[in-house]
Amino acid sequence: MSDAQRVGRAVFSAAAGALITRGDGEVLLVHHGRSRTWVLPGGKAEWGEPPARTCAREVAEELGVPAAVGRLLVYNWMTTRAELFPGAANAEHAYPCHVFTFHATLAPGAQERIRTPERELLGWHW
User: Fold this and answer.
1) Cα–Cα dist 88/45, whole Å
2) What whole-number distance in Å separates Cα of residue 68 and Cα of residue 71?
3) pTM
4) Strand ranges across the sheet with 38-39
5) Domains plus CATH for the chain?
6) What is the per-residue pLDDT across 41-89, written as a single tens digit (0 to 9) for each?
């Protein structure tokens, strides 16, 4: 979509992540390969996808195991650079991103089955 086509249209994105804890209070983090940062598992929403569904899908994609998504803990707003959007006409332009963080739990025994996608993540840790 060109900048001319974008005029008058709201352009934003949404993302969701999971705060997964275990009994001793530790939090599960994933190590992203591209940014080299430790973050909560999560990612961008697909068009029309509800935030809780985004959270569940992204956790399953990043950890290889399902998570039970619970209540919304945090809603935040941030700007993201256009280069994160395929086909963006102006990489210098920033777009708003609505970020939802949910509490989530793994089923008993799921930790032993966690498998992170090698091309995206370097690993995970409590």
Assistant:
1) 17
2) 10
3) 0.79
4) 38-39, 29-32, 121-125
5) 9-125 (3.90.79.10)
6) 999 999 899 999 999 999 999 999 999 999 999 999 887 765 555 555 5
